[in-house]
Specification:
Layout lengths: L3 H6 L9 H11 L5 H9 L2 H11 L13 H8 L1 H18 L8 H21 L5 H10 L2 H9 L1 H14 L3 H8 L4 H11 L4 H8 L11 H19 L3 H6 L3 H7 L6 H19 L7
Helix pairs in contact: 2-3, 2-6, 3-5, 5-6, 6-8, 7-8, 7-14, 7-17, 9-10, 9-12, 10-11, 12-13, 13-14, 14-16
Organism: Pseudothauera nasutitermitis
Protein name: HDOD domain-containing protein
Length: 285
């Protein structure tokens, strides 16, 4: 049996995010941090600059190609949203180099973007001002599976097969066969990456949101978004997906199960465009 800490300690390619992300975090966390400082850090990385301007000038943000410098992008979007976008792009660049055996990476990337979009849509529905942060959390939600297929691919595949054939919840099959589940591994990995503690709290509690402490609300959003992804992958209706979610989660979010269909439609509407932005080599099926 393996612990989440053991699996993360064995990772190689997923060991760290790009250094520029940490430098931006340091600038944001510093009392002397500034828009100018963040702009200079981003501008010093040509690849990141190109990706950021491509995203900001896409139809998704509505600036019609008018943002031609990093400093202008930072001024328009603000420091927190720049942080969130840089983190999302950093995570996607790490993902792009991973090819674990026995894992369908196209399916993984597509699901990650779907979860990110569903999480943001739910956050907006709940009136959260930090909806972009939930986009990043959604992108990270399934990270534990990427780690598991990198380190123990046979066991991870066996757990998925057991879940597919018997209907056993995947996380329960993972605990039984591996010793930990994807949520634990994902939380441990983002903690290893030194992301804000709320990220690890939300990811670790996405299967049981009530255990998320101060991040229980974010965990509940991820919990619902996961069901959107599950329904999309398995050709289920939104009604079937909503029925799997405990009533306590709907109460926690003050959200009606009937809204899940609209959330799913919004995520599906933007899926192809966001996949093209963050994973341009991936085709959406």
């Amino acid at each position: 049996m393996h612990s989440a800490q053991e699996l993360v300690s064995q990772l190689d390619a997923l060991a760290s995010l790009p250094r520029v992300y940490y430098r931006i975090r340091e600038e944001l966390d510093s009392p002397e941090g500034s828009v100018t400082g963040v702009g200079h850090l981003v501008a010093a990385d040509p690849a990141l600059t190109a990706r950021l301007l491509r995203v900001v000038n896409s139809a998704l943000y509505g600036y019609g190609g008018q943002v031609d410098t990093v400093s202008r992008a930072v001024q328009i979007l603000g420091l927190q949203q720049i942080h969130d976008l840089v983190l999302a792009m950093s995570v996607s660049s790490v993902f792009a180099g991973i090819r674990p055996d026995r894992m369908d990476m196209n399916r993984f990337w597509r699901g990650s973007v779907m979860c990110a979009l569903a999480s943001r849509a739910i956050a907006r529905n709940c009136g959260l001002p930090s909806a972009e942060r939930l986009f990043v959390l959604g992108m990270l939600a399934d990270l534990g599976h990427l780690a598991m297929y990198q380190v123990v691919p046979e066991l991870a595949g066996e757990a998925q097969q057991a879940a597919d054939e018997t209907g056993e919840p995947l996380h329960e099959a993972e605990r039984r066969l591996i010793g930990c589940d994807f949520a634990e591994v994902g939380a441990t990995l983002v903690d290893h990456w030194r992301l804000p503690p709320c990220f690890a709290e939300a990811l670790g509690a996405q299967l049981q949101p009530r255990l998320g402490g101060d991040s229980a609300f974010d965990a509940a959003i991820l919990h619902v978004a996961n069901q959107v992804v599950h329904a999309d992958r398995n050709g289920e209706s939104s009604e079937e997906a909503a029925a799997r979610i405990d009533s306590s989660v709907w109460m926690q979010l003050a959200m009606s199960p009937a809204k899940l269909g609209r959330i799913r439609e919004e995520a599906e509407l933007h899926l192809a465009a966001y996949v093209a932005l963050f994973f341009p080599k991936l085709g959406v099926q």
